[in-house]
User: Fold Deoxyribodipyrimidine photo-lyase from Natronospira bacteriovora.
Amino acid sequence: MKTLILWFRRDLRLSDNPALRAAVDVAETVIPVFIHAPEEEGQWAPGEAARWWQHESLASLADRLAESGSRLILRRGSTREVLADLLAETGAEGVYWNRLYEPALVERDRSIKQWLRAEGHEARSFQAALLVEPWAMRTGKGEPYRVFTPFWRAFGKRGSPRSPRRKPGTLRPATNWPRSESLQALGLLPAVRWYPRLASCWQPGEAGAEAALTRFLDRGLSSYHEDRDRPAVDGISRLSPHLHHGELSPFQAWQRVSERLAAQAALTQGGEAWLRELVWREFAHHVLFEFPHTPEAPLYERWADFPWREDHQPLLRAWQRGETGYPIVDAGMRELWHSGFMHNRVRMVAASLLVKNIRAPWLAGARWFWDTLVDADLANNTMGWQWSAGCGADAAPYFRIFNPFTQSRRFDGDGAYIRRWLPELARLPDKALHAPHEAEASLLQAAGVRLGKDYPRPVVDYRESRAAALAAAKQLR
Assistant:
């Protein structure tokens, strides 16, 4: 009787799970296991918001396994030592898992596979998190891509991704189960109890992912190309945390959107725009895999000498608190603290202010997002921040500096987003809302807004700080 260990990681689903499908196809018994070993992820172990999501998603997965007559075995500690114990306890002949692509995990998984095979155990890994393996995409010169547009064209020439696989009819449960630790014993929930607010905003787990995808298909897909940049409108998919934690596979998302496009021609623009964003996710992982130094250092080495502001810490703190005096940025930072999420348009504006105007190192912003985003993904987070700083793949030119006031008026013209997250400014008329420091004193007084007390003045002057950023970047040219 063949027994296999199914090693769950960020693939917390039963549908379209290639490792699970392969295991139940060849084994009489499958032991689902999750091992908590954050120290093996180096400097980028999951942040607090992501750990909250992981806790809730594991609880959901355990319930779904139980409904199918199986169990989720939880352990913590060295992955190699835990697997060695489980192999001895269960008599399992091998371990199956789905691949991840972060640098520290690539090295860890490679070592685990070599060790298992050297010990005479079967070790198989599967493609589940990406539509295309990073090493399968190369330029005509055989080099990694650094620019998205040619990557997108090459991706399109590959044809449609494979169809997702259904949940197996049986999960091959064990008769005698090994010991499991409690979910609480893993210590995933943050010590600072700000996370209960997240539960009102999200439904982690495979069922939550399916509900979010269906909701987007029904309500957001048709107008996605128009609404994706408007933070006050429910016009985005909000699927990024489900994709990151593996409750939804990119193959499932691609197929469901493609099916809608085939059935309703009116959805073409919105659907194609969203599929393009899904391929941006692929591109980010491609870059991270090929350039593993980028979470800590610029892709382009010359940017390592950029002269960041030496006294940036107080300004960084104001940015983190949503107290910069730039309403669109402060609204985004408060949305982040409340929900573990920030609209992508606002992410770009907030990042630009930090690295271009405040001139704090992009890595400081990346680490704050890493700790507070429920969808904190090393590939996307790294690419986003290096794009904003101008030092990464497909980066914004050094002279592209978002004007927060212009962005605010363009994408939140009626101020609905700002008023939601900055209630102290809610009574200001639209013309004064986006730049209160420029408003007439009578308007501020009528709205009960005292600059410097109820709401701060800008922590840096936009024009002066923009000029300083351009001068600093010019030195590197």
Notes: Residues 56 and 182 are 13 Å apart (CA to CA).
